[in-house]
Write a structure and sequence with these properties.
- The chain is of the alpha/beta class.
- 25% of the residues lie in helices and 29% in strands.
- The strands form three sheets. A five-stranded mixed sheet has the order 5-4-3-8-9. It has a two-stranded antiparallel ribbon with strand order 1-2.
């Protein structure tokens, strides 16, 4: 698992508008990268909307969501809830695996691979400041605000 002080794995994915996005795209900003299982599902919607709601309180920190959904599905999700930040498509799970959030999960006795909801605060040099694995939707904005001293 990644931890504070680790170099953040590379991100190079398409956003909901088909624009290639990397960590370097954000320049000198800190970036909250959060991984969620599936766009427009209850927990993922709650998490994304709560982050949208605190965007005005986090200064120059950028918010970036990543899930296995296609750019088109991410676009519908963004349009429906007016999220206003990049939602990246990791359909091949390359970035999810690099961040160690692509895991075997189990529901009703059935095992399958999926995203473990997690979030990472990364500084402008690409170093992880905070890593939160298995974070709940409602804790994501609270942990971000706390980490930023807000």
């Amino acid at each position: 698992m990644l931890k504070a002080g680790s170099k953040a794995p590379k991100i190079d994915l398409l956003d909901q508008n088909g624009k290639r996005t990397t960590l370097a795209s954000f320049g000198k900003k800190k970036v909250l990268v959060y991984f969620y299982p599936k766009a427009d599902t209850p927990g993922c919607t709650q998490q994304s909307c709560l982050l949208r709601d605190i965007a005005g309180e986090i200064g120059r920190t950028a918010i970036v969501g990543i899930s296995p959904d296609s750019p088109a599905k991410q676009k519908k999700f963004d349009d429906k809830y007016g999220l206003g930040f990049p939602l990246l498509s990791d359909e091949d799970h390359v970035v999810s695996k690099a961040y160690k959030v692509w895991k075997e999960k189990s529901m009703y006795g059935r095992k399958y691979m999926g995203i473990e909801r997690s979030a990472f605060l990364i500084d402008s040099t690409g170093v992880i400041l905070h890593a939160w694995y298995k974070i709940s939707p409602k804790d994501t904005p609270a942990k971000l605000l706390e980490a930023l001293g807000k």
